[in-house]
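Let's study my pick:
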Amino acid sequence: MFFVYYDDDYPENGGVGFEKFETEKLLFEFIAKRIKEDPTRELTNYTVVKGDAYILEGIQYATSFKLKMSE
């Protein structure tokens, strides 16, 4: 599994996000498409991570929350 964090435009324009891909080919196609849409984008706007996705399983559920102020 491949993941890409991209930061190639303003968040309001959908230019910041995190996507997952089953293959390198799909990952590269995604990056190439985004760069083609705006040639000012650079490869440094993308961070690729290879790994496994895990599902979080709750063991204990919180029923309320509070803020703890740092000292």
The beta strands are 2-7, 16-21, 46-50. Residues 2-50 form one domain.
